[in-house]
Design a protein that fits this description.
Structural class: alpha/beta
Shape: globular
Strand order of the largest sheet: 1-2-3-4-7-8-9-11
Number of helices: 13
CATH architecture: Alpha-Beta Barrel
Number of domains: 1
CATH class: Alpha Beta
CATH superfamily: Luciferase-like domain
């Protein structure tokens, strides 16, 4: 069984380890450098800890600034294939821009990874939003709703190639396929799909098509997060008669004392944050500057839900997120290997005691 569907009440993933600086645009010491030894080390730490998933970020160009945030990025299908051969139980996502990979190629690549991993592949379907990188492909992202129509046809073709034994034809608005056929089929039936659609059209697409819906949440407006979770669950049940998991992303700063955790968070966010890169991500959607004195801290980069404190405080916050209604969270740190080891040793046992997770030996079995 894919670990994404195990019995743990709060499932965990590791986010963004295929990209330089991971999920945090900062020049603080210990940030992630994109090398294969680094990504392999992180994957195996997570795998040994019984963490459920590795979720990469699909990037073709960085965001400038001092760091050129995410400028060096491993392609996510080949990245997942490499890690599939070097791990035992963890689910391996490929994050796939539908505009950059033909669905026949995506289906073949996904089935290959599923066989390499013995049924641990998962697909994160994304439409794309960063026009600057898509200009390299001569694509326009101006038709937002049309992109989701495109993604629906794309995913329909992928799924038919994964499941149908006879040849078939397809005539859609965006794709025409004659004699569609692919072998081998994936080991999994079906292959799990994730999507992070957040607009009205995107949320409906996610609720209809995804086994895991990914949302952004803010620690400073949890009512909005609760509403998103309930909206997605209601859409999935009412419009498709199905259940879906809901996940978010969390940036973690965990230290032996609260003072140490807060001081490091301020260091990497305020003193060392690359807010020029964040401005390029934000495109005017939110204030792209370091938080001033008295303002809540927010992590530079992918806007993850920021969790700062001692192991006990961090575990309490994860319990809270589960109580809010989340099924899973992908995690990131400034220094992934070092801080993951501390998480595994000091936070995971507390999550087990709280009933959110089974001991790792049970989770892997």
């Amino acid at each position: 069984m894919n670990a994404l569907f195990n019995a743990n009440k709060l499932k965990l993933g590791i986010f963004g380890t295929n990209c330089s600086y991971g999920c945090t645009a900062t020049t603080a010491e210990g940030t992630l450098e994109t090398t294969w030894p680094n990504t392999l080390e992180i994957a195996q730490i997570a795998d040994d800890a019984g963490i459920e998933a590795l979720v990469p970020i699909a990037r073709w160009k960085g965001f400038g600034g001092t760091t050129d945030f995410n400028g060096a990025a491993f392609e996510t299908y080949t990245w997942a294939a490499g890690l599939a051969a070097a791990t035992r139980q963890i689910a391996l996502f490929s994050t796939s821009h539908v505009l950059t990979t033909h669905p026949i190629v995506a289906a073949k690549q996904g089935a290959t990874i599923d066989h390499i991993s013995n049924g641990r592949f998962a697909l994160n379907v994304v439409c794309g939003w960063y026009q600057h990188e898509f200009e390299m492909f001569s694509y326009s992202l101006s038709d937002h709703d049309g992109l989701y129509e495109y993604a629906e046809e794309w995913l329909q073709i992928v799924r038919r190639l994964w499941t149908e034994d006879a040849e078939w034809d397809f005539q859609g608005r965006f794709f025409q396929v004659q004699h569609g056929y692919s072998l081998p089929k994936p080991i999994q039936r079906p292959v799990p799909v994730m999507n992070a659609g957040s607009s009205a059209v995107g949320a409906r697409f996610a609720a209809r098509e995804a086994d895991l819906c990914f949302i952004s949440m803010s620690a400073h407006d949890e009512d909005a997060g609760r509403a998103k979770i309930e909206q997605l669950r209601t859409l999935a049940r009412d419009e498709s008669g199905r259940e879906t998991q809901v996940w978010t992303s969390c940036g973690i700063v965990c230290r032996p004392t609260e003072r140490e955790a807060i001081d490091f968070a301020r260091h990497y966010i305020v003193d060392k944050g690359d807010w020029e890169a964040v401005s390029n991500i934000a495109r005017g959607r939110y204030p792209a500057r370091a938080p001033r004195d008295g303002e809540p801290l927010r992590s530079p980069g992918w806007g993850s839900y920021l969790v700062v404190g001692t192991p006990e405080q961090v575990a309490e916050r994860m319990v809270h997120l589960s109580e809010v209604g989340l099924d899973g969270a992908v995690l990131s740190w400034v220094n992934y290997p070092e801080e993951m080891r501390y998480w595994n040793a000091d936070v995971m046992p507390l999550l087990e005691q709280a009933g959110l997770r089974r001991p790792v030996t049970a989770a892997v079995a």
